[in-house]
Design a protein that fits this description.
5 helices
């Protein structure tokens, strides 16, 4: 199935700025959230899922959107609240380079 709007959004980075930022996710995110019912995704309620998927599998367009929509502080809160293992190693490095990540929550290897 082809999503012409999403294709145009990828080819035209300025297109996603025209979407209403109130709660509707741009079609640009449909390929990242293919396993979810896209019409029922709420940008506030599903903030963690959107940020993690965008960071792990998204392009620079996705990262720009989440940064503009949520802000750096909210992204840092989400990333510091989840285990670092939820983010791929290369995506962790990218998030650190873009100053999107504060501290990573690494699981302790100790038994106590």
């Amino acid at each position: 199935m082809v999503f012409p709007t999403a294709t145009r959004a990828v080819n035209n980075p300025d297109l996603w700025y025209n979407f209403d930022m109130s709660g509707e996710l741009p079609p640009l995110f449909r390929p990242l959230l293919w396993s979810y019912d896209f019409s029922n995704i709420d940008t506030d309620k599903h903030r963690k899922t959107i940020i993690v998927q965008a960071l792990n599998y998204g392009t620079l367009h996705h990262l720009r959107w989440i940064k503009k929509h949520y802000g750096t502080t909210a992204i840092r809160e989400v990333l510091s609240s989840i285990p670092a293992s939820e983010i791929r190693p290369k995506a962790r490095r990218l998030a650190s380079l873009l100053s999107l990540a504060g501290t990573w929550n690494y699981a302790s290897r100790r038994a106590h």
